[in-house]
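Hello again, I could really use a second opinion on something today. I've been staring at a protein lately and its backbone has me curious. You're getting the sequence in one-letter code plus the fold written as tokens. I'd be grateful if you could look everything over and explain what you see. No rush at all, and the record is pasted right below:
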Amino acid sequence: MSLRDTVLLGVLFGLICFGLGYSILNRYDPGKLGGTSDAADYCEMVRDPLSIASYRPFVPALAKPFFWAADGRSGSWDPALFGMLASTSILTAATAVVIVAIGLEIGFTYPVSLLGALLFLLNFDVMNWNLAAYVDSGEALFLTLTVWSLIVGRWYLLPLWAFPGSLSKETFAPFAVILAFVWWLNEKPRRPVNLLWILALAALSGVAVLLSFSSAGFFAGSIHYTVRMQQYAKVGFAHAVLRCLTAHEFWYTFMWLLPLGVWRLRSMDRRWTWSVLCTFVLALLMGAYNDALGNTTRALFNISGPLLSLSVAAFLVEAGDRQRAS
């Protein structure tokens, strides 16, 4: 895409995202709802420059300039929530632009690529998590950029996504490394230098995670994380896997994305399909280990959403073409 088209799409997608997430400004505060306090922690980090309420600082840091601009001038809007919505809208819009670029790179037409990006934006997951004062939009963007780097053969860019991705959400580190490694295994021929870029991605991601945990109190953060990751023991691992797959959030997100998306997967890039499948399984196992229930869906969507959205777009356009031909 030309620079003009990229900027135009970015602005368009950004405005769409702001509209999709607008409800957190006037209708409800996600930090005050039951089930999780994460959104409240992120908003606290936006308001207080010294806050270490969370070890996921990237998105709240991106939100701070918008908070400063809105503080005292936002009327009924909470300036911290405004900052989070502005930053997550930018990150989610950027993800949609990268999806269009990926679609064009793998041979789809512009309309199919654009439809894939719009289907991604209109998914249940985006409105209810990525644009609801959480940090998943950062993980989604840098995982999608990881895929784009692999598709265009620019493996040397992988380490560039390590720090912002891991500082957005610590799960980016294992997901990106497995995604890239499985991709490398499916390469023909396999270039050893590309494996070195994967190792660099793993090393820098590990450093970023350690730094973020240290900033929030390494030992306290580690103990909290360990305790949370042992919740599955209350129900058993196999039952925890089932609970993740039967959570209503999973079905709201994937009930149309999976059935329509699988029809076109055979014609998608085989390396991407296998990488997503293996990383998807890893995320599911991690979610079961934490007994994360519907929260596991966020990671599953960030991993598979771009692939399935483009696959659904191709399926729908081809179905329309067949109907017109008949």
